[in-house]
Structures are given as C-alpha cells and as structure tokens.
Amino acid sequence: MVQVLLSNVARTVLRRTAVLLCVLWLAVSPAWAARKNDKTAVPAPPDILLEGNRKLGYEGVFNSSRDVRGKIGFWTKVLDVVAGEADYRELIRPYDVVEDSRGRLIISDPGAIGVHIFDFVQHKYRFLERRNREKDAMMAPQGVAVDAEDNIYVTDSDAGKIFVWDGNGKFRRVIGSLHGGEGFFKRPTGIAVDSAAKRIYVSDTLRDKVFVLNMDGEVMQTLGQSGQKDAEFHFPTELRIAGNTLAVVDAMNFRIKLWSKDGQFQRAIGQPGDGLGQLFRPKGIGVDSEGHYYVVDGLRGLVQVFNADGELLYYFGKRGTALGEFQLPAGLFIDHSDRIYIVDSYNHRIQIYHYFGLPAQVGGAH
Amino acid sequence: MMKPRLIAVPVLCLVLLAGHLLAQDTHIDGLHVGAAGNVSAGYSGDFNPQSGSDHAVSIGGDATVHGYYYNPNLVSFDVSPYYGRSQANSGTGSIFDSSGYNANLSIFAGSHFPGSVSINQGFNNSGTYGIPGVSGLTTESSSRSFAVGWSFLFPDKPTLTLGFTQSSGSSEVEGSDAKSTGNVRSFSASSGYHLGGFPFTIGFNLVDSHTDTTGFLTNVGGDTKSNSLTFNTGHSIPRGRVSFSFSHGSYTNDSPSGTDKGSTNTLDLSVGSRIWRLPLTVTADYTDNAFGSLEQQTLANGGTYLISSSEPTTRALNISTGTSYMFFGKVFVNAYLVRQEEWLGGSSYGLTQYGATGAYNFGKRFKGLVVTVGAMDTANAYGNTGATLLANAHYNRYIKKWDFSANLGYNQNVQTLFALYTMSSFNYSASANRKLQHGMHFSIGGGGSRSGFQEQAGDMSHAESVTAAFGWRRFQMATNYSQSSGQSVLTSSGLVALPSPVITGSDVVVFDGKGEGASISAAPIRNMNVTVSYSRSIGSIGGQTINSNTLSELYNGFLTYRLRKLYFNAGVTKFRQDVTGSGSFASQQTSYYFGISRWFKFF
To answer: Which whole number is the average pLDDT over A40-66?
Structure first.
C-alpha cells in the first residue's frame, strides 16, 4: 500500500517536474537564440582625414546604464541567466553633457526628469532626480556643468532654478528659488562654471541675458540685452568657457557670441542660413585643444567646425539613425584629450568622436 | 465543461513553442511578433474541513504574444493565456486558482472597412454577488465570450457597422447551493449618413439572453428576447440646435413568475438656443409604454422582469424648459418648468412643476465654499401639492497642509418616475488629509446617504461608511467600515437597488449588511512587499421566497521579493463564507503557497 502511494507521489512529482522543465526550456531558449542576433555588426563611419595629419575618428556610442558594465564574471553570467539582467536605465531625451575631473560623463535628460552619471572608469552608474517634491522639485533639467570640486550644476528651464549636487551625488542646494517657491530665472538653459574666478554663468533664454553669479548664487552682473546687435541676444542658449572666453550660442540671431569672462563683448562668429558654414539651428558648442569651435546644428543633424575667425574648417554627421548620424542633436562637450561627446537626443544616445590634432598642442576646454 | 488545464496549458505551451520557433529564424516574411510573460513554480497546500488537506507542487504562468503582419493597420493580434496565476497568496488576489486566455485580432484598422475579433475564456475566476453598500459575497465563476465587428466607412457614403457577441458563463455563490448559468447573444447594426445638413443615424439591436439559477435563488432567472430600432437626426438653427430621435422596442420575458411581452415607442425632441444672454432648452419626450421602458432599463442593469408591463397601458408625455444666468459673476441661477401628463389604466394624471436653484461661490471670504439652494413647487389637477426644498453645499480647501473636502446634499419631495411618486434623499461626505513631517501622512473620510419614497412607507434605504488611512514612509495602514440597508431586487448577479416603488413582486427583498476591513502593507527593504489584510461582511436578505443570513471573511497575508526578473512569493489565505438557509455547508478553506516566478521576454 505504502509502495503504491509512494509510486503515485513519485509519478506525480516526476510528471510535473518534466512539464516544468519543458516550459522553462521553451521559455528560456528563445531568449538565448535571439541574443545571438543582437551581435550584428553595424559599420562605424570612416575616419575623416584633415590637413596636417589631423584626423577625426569615430569612437563609439552608448545609450543606457548597461554600457558601463565592465567585464562580466562567471557568477554574474549565471545570475543573468537565472534571474535575468538587472534593470537598466535608458537615455530617454538627453539634452546636455559634461565630463568631470574623474572622467565621469554627466548627462541631463528632461525626458527622464533627471541627470545620468556614467562612470566608465569605475563601471558605475547613478541617476540624480528630485521628482514629486513639495519644495524645489526638478521638472525639466537642461544645461549641466561641473566645477573644480566636481559639484554638479543643472539648470531647470521649467522651474527657473539651478540645482546643485556634490560629486558623490548628494543634493546640496538650489540657486534661484524665491520665497514663494517660484524660480528667479524665466527660462535658464545654458550654464558654465569658472571655478578659478568663482563665477557661474547662466543664460536666461526668455530674458535674452546671461547672468553672472557668484558661487553663493548672488547676481554679480548681467551680459547683453534683447536685440540683434553684437552685444545683444535673441534667445541665448548654450554656454561654454574656453580659456578667458565665454562662448554664447545666440540661437535666434544664428551666431556664436564670444565674450571675455569679465563681461566685455569680443566678437561673433557664424551667420544665419541653411548652407554649410552657416548656422540654422545652433545647439551645443565645444572648443578643442586647438581653439576650434564645434557647433551642433539641431535640424540638419550635423556638427560644423570653425576656426577662431569663424571660417568653416569641416563638418561631420547627417540626419539619420545609423552610427555617425544624428536626429535632433543637442549638447556637445570636448574633454582634455579632444574626445567629443555629442548628445544625439532623438536617437536616445551619446555618440563619441575623437579629434587627433597637432601633437604639440595639449589642453582642452571646459 | 472542459477542465481549465486542458485548454490553458496547451495554449500556453503553443505560445511558448511559437516563440521558440520564431526565435530560431523560422520566421515568416512581414510577420512581427513579440512575447513576454511569467513562468512560476512552487509548493502549495490547502485545508478544507469537507475535503481534508491537500498539497502539491504547482506550476503556472502567463504570457502575452502580440504582433502584426507587415503593418499594424493590416493585421494585428494579441493572445494572453494564463494558468494558475491568480491565487490570493501567489499573485493577483483572487481566492481561486484561475486560468484562461484572452485573444484579439484586428484587421484593416485605419482603413475604410476595419474589423475585429475577440475571444475570451476564463475558469475559476472570483467574482462578487453584489449587496448594495457592502462588499458582497464571493462567487467562483467561469465565462466565455466571442465578439466580431466589422465596419464600412467610405467617405461621402452611408456608413455601416455590424457587431455580433456571444457570451456565456456560470457562477456559484461560495458556501451556498446557489448556482447560476447564463448566456447572451446580441447582434447590432448601425448606419450613419449626412444629407442636406442633417446627420442621420439609424441602429438596430437584437438581444437574446437566458439565465438559469438553482439553489436558494430559485425564483431568479428566465429568458429574455428584445430588439430595438433607433433613429436620430438633428440640425443647426440660429444660435442653437434641434435634435430628434425615435426608438421602437419589443421584448418577451419568460421567468418562473410568468411571461411578459410588449413593445415601446418613444419620441424625443430637443431644441437648444440662446435668447439675449440666456441659454434656453426645450425638451419633449413621449412614450406609449412607460412601464415597459422602466422594465427595459431594469433588464439592462441585470435585473429581472418585475411586473406585467403591457396591462394596464401606461403612456407618458413630459415637456420641460429651462434656462440659466450668472449674476455678478458669483451667483449662478438655473430656472426650469416641467409639465408631465400620464395615462395609466384609463385614468389621466398631470402635474406642473416650476422651480429655480441658485449657486453662490463665497470666493475669498470662505474660500472653497459653494452653496446651492433651490425651491420647486408642484401642482396637479387637485391643486398645489407643496413646495420642494433642494440644497447642496460643497467645501474644498487646503489649509496649512490640511486638505479638507466636504459635501452635503438634501432633496425633499423630488418628483421621480411617474407623476404619482416623490422621493426625499439626504447625503453627506467629508474627508481630511494631512501631511506630517518625516514622510508621515494620514487621511480620514466618511459619508452616508438616506433615501425613500414619500408615498410608500418602510422603503427607506440608507448607507454609511467611514475610512481611515495612515502612512509612514514604506508602511501603510488602512481601515474601513460600511453598513447599509434597504430594499432591492434579487437577481442572479446580486441585489440591484430598487428602481421605483411601483414595482412589487416576489423578487423584491429587504437587505441589511455591514462590512469592515483593514490592511497593513510595508516595504521593509527594497523590492520587498508584505501585505496583511482582513475583510468581513455580514448581512441578511429577506423576502417572500428567501430568508438568509450571510457571513464572508477573508484573511490574507502575502510576501513578495523581487530579484531582477525573479519573484519570490509566499502567502497564506483563510477564507470562510456561510449562507444560511441554502442547504449547504459553509465554505471554508485555508491555503498557503511559496514559490518562485520568473519574467521572460521570450522574443
């Protein structure tokens, strides 16, 4: 009797185990089979050879926290198979990018309403946000900058404020938060920090001005006024400091305005138009080690490179989704080694180029 | 009926096999398919005083396959089978181990002739036998439905939309011998066209339903056949619009109480315009079978046929007009005049009503307070029958982290269906929410209502409820209490609130119910949730054919922890339901489960 009972129980357990194994095999095997196809090679754009043995090469692309993973160990692979891969955060609508002294890339993402920190050296990722807060909630992060201590400054074009985190991701303070909770700025977009002079530069696009703040957030000076003349702005957006020069993207005057850091207008480069060498929808700006200005054209999906006199040297990119192509590109940052990070906003990714300039010239822009 | 496992498991395996083959490059050109779902395994046991204890290794899962052929607007589909995924202690909170599938197919969406087909089948789903005001009794049910629809939408041509639905189902009230089965078939056709500035729509609807109930609800059930033909049109006029509709319906109802058949013809005319700054609306509607219209409404709400509606003949004509105006930007006044003429069994009844309401927003002085006060006078052939008072106050304000909301309403002697009956009602509700420091917050609320017909003693119904909740960071607590009593109509799906005092019969019952519940949930660590809940309802149902006391209790504890795409589940459920006078033992079951579930994106 006991044997019959045991055999019945054993049969039931065996039958159910067999069914479970079949179901698991059917469930898991498509994922493995499909993963083989994920490795399809996509051709990178060819290098652009420039005069004087200079070269612009394509380095790569990333779009999620999965890309910061280092070499995957055996047990991690086992865990990936058994429990599935961890939840990775994707870039949704990235806008601006900057690199801090530790080599971490800090990317504002108004689509995700937060700031991504990609640390490819330490293989770490972090996401900064301040949503659903009763006081000083972050709503639309736009421009991003870092100071010498790696504090992170983020403009919020909807809240009209600047949010500050320290280098470890701890929230520190808000600049421009008025007593009633409203923001001081009408629509802050671009931001740049001059740590040596202890100045913060913020473009207020709707006011057609660039505010110069001290490190406590007090207004020291304003640059420009509404208009189309040299020292005037019509919707200023991105800012970049290169040496003693502050570059301001004067979006609706279709020019780049160069100012000294003490507030004197120097000159403008670029002219309006939709041809090469002209600015149609200027977005991000960066300066390489040779003082060349890289200006993103958002609508045409390309980056134009000008010399200090405003003459077009070359351009790269076009509209599209393939590698080396852009859809509504926005921010651009060039690090000390002339690595160029371009926010490919509508393709939800960051594309990386590397400029190999004259060997003798070292030093980049912030 | 076929066992659920015989259908759900093969469907689930077919879906997984399809994914397996597609992922192995056995794909069809133009076919885009995606699928995701859960596979679970665990150990479960239960104890039942009638059948003893049982325990087993259980497997389950669910999946959703969706896709399209070449373009989503050409052919798109989704199929979602599930098996053993709904135990209260392992998934979505159902007491039973439900299974089934849902499937939908869309053809030529966005074209001039879109079509759709949907098939759904479910086994061992938990449902509710409704009792107004409280949580009701738990039922175990199975259902099946098939629906197909097709349209012809060519521009500048008459449109045509056709639909057919067939559904059937069965349910059992746990702890009783009440079992109900039913099926419904319906066909609908409608067409629209613009001609000379007039938009015409015409529709036809045919419904054939059958309900059969056994056990202590034996007088419920029957066959119903009905069809209706509707016609609508309208046209713009200077500073307004006029619209007209006509409908003809016929019905046949067979039930244990008898047979009723009849037809209704209804005409509606509405004119809306503006004179000076006053919006003016005039409506007139006529029906040649007022009882029949009421019965059709009751049937549509799940009720059974109530009285013979063909004799005596009831005809009704209602004409009303109204306008409104805002005085000084703060006082909104609405005035109206109504004339009702009704013919019942050869006698004529008529009345005239006129009245006005005024709503005042107190603005800054009492910010958030809006008070509406109105009066109405009614007169019939025998003279003035008295004035009516209408009042409503609403208050909503945020004061220093307190969010207050309150509503108070009173309606005295308001004329309802037919010129003979008036009803008084009173309702109130209030709530307050408060946010505290350190992530704490709490809320309390309550409300109630009373209503009854003036001309019929003892039909007063009332319902009251209170709720309270408290939260602190990852901990949440909530409690509730409710009670209700009154008259209702007994149907196979529950008690339906009494629609009118003129309706009497064996299906009208008195009910009295009380319900209470509490829950505590916490997330002690990231990705872990623990929930403990308790609910209890007691009640009594009394009528000519039924006298029963009911008790339903449910204790539920559930823990889940997520590691990436793995879910570790554990839980225990204790359920008890007793329905006296039904000839069955109380339903009691204690079950426990622990297992593991893995989410997959199959392809």
So the answer is: 89
pLDDT band at B252 (very low <50, low <70, confident <90, very high): confident
**Residues contacting A84, CB < 8 A, separation 6+:** B564, B565, B566, B598, B599, B600
**pLDDT in the model for residue B36:** 92
Strand order in the sheet with A293-297: A282-287, A293-297, A302-306, A312-316
pLDDT score of A38 more than 60: no
pLDDT digit string, tens, across residues A242-297: 999 999 999 999 999 999 999 999 999 999 999 999 999 999 999 999 999 999 99
**Short-list B148, B153, B159, B68, CA closest to B110:** B153
User: For B110-168, what is each residue's pLDDT tens digit?
Assistant: 899 999 999 999 998 888 888 887 888 999 999 999 999 999 999 889 999 999 999 99
Which residue in B293, B315, B149, B169 sits closest to B226, CA to CA? B293
Give dist(CA B466, CA B135) in Å, integer: 14
Give the best residue of A8, A16, A17, A20 to mutate against chain B (max B CB count within 10 A): A20
- Asked if the C-beta of B440 comes within 8 angstroms of chain A's C-beta atoms, the answer is no
Amino acid at A187: R
Can you tell me the distance from the alpha carbon of A2 to that of A98, in angstroms, rounded to the nearest whole number?
73
* HEC-encoded secondary structure of B203-267: EEEEEEEEEEEECCCCCCEEEEEEEEEEEEEEEEECCEEEEEEEEEEEEEEEECCEEEEEEEEEE
Which of B39, B57, B565 is nearest residue A23 as measured by Cβ atoms?
Answer: B39
Q: Which amino acid is present at A251? A: A
In sequence order, the 6+-apart residues with CB closer than 8 A to the CB of B40 are B59, B60, B61, B84, B85, B90, B567, B569, B595, B596, B597, B598
Q: Which of A241, A127, A260, A137 is nearest to A192 (CA)?
A: A241
How confident is residue A14, by pLDDT bands cut at 50, 70 and 90?
Answer: low
- Write a three-state SS string for B99-134: EEEEEEEEECCCCCCCEEEEEEEEEEEEEEEEECCE
Q: Which two three-digit tokens encode residue B342?
A: 């009704």
Per-residue model confidence as pLDDT tens digits over B527-579 = 999 999 999 999 998 887 788 899 999 999 999 999 999 999 999 999 999 99
A 33-62 residues with CB < 8 A to B: 33-34
Q: Which residues contact A183 (CB under 8 A, 6 or more apart)?
A: A156, A159, A160, A161, A176, A177
Structural tokens at position B578? 């007793």
3-state secondary structure of A47: coil
Mean pLDDT of B280-299: 83
Cα separation, B542 vs B549, in Å, equals: 9
B41 and A CB contact within 8 Å = yes
Structure tokens at B303: 């009720």
Classify residue A103 as left (phi > 0), alpha (psi -120 to 50) or beta.
left
The residue with greater pLDDT, B9 or B29, is: B29
Of A23, A83, A86, the CB nearest to B61: A23
Question: ipTM beyond 0.95?
Answer: no
Torsion of CA A123, A127, A128, A132, to 10 degrees: -160
Interchain contact, B57 vs A13, CB within 8 Å: yes
Question: Is residue A148 predicted with pLDDT exceeding 80?
Answer: yes
Cα dist from A64 to A87, A120, A350, whole Å: 10, 12, 9
Residues of A in contact with B566 (CB under 8 A): 82-84
**What pLDDT is stored for residue B7 in this prediction?**
58
Which of the 8 DSSP states describes residue A292?
P
Q: Calculate the CA B426 to chain-centre distance.
A: 23
**DSSP H/E element including A152:** strand A152-156
Mean pLDDT value across residues A221-229: 95
**CB neighbours (10 Å) of residue B96?**
21
Q: Which residues of B fall within a CB distance of 8 Å from A87?
A: 564
Q: What pTM value is reported for the model?
A: 0.78
Angle among Cα A207, A209, A211 to the nearest 5 degrees reads 115
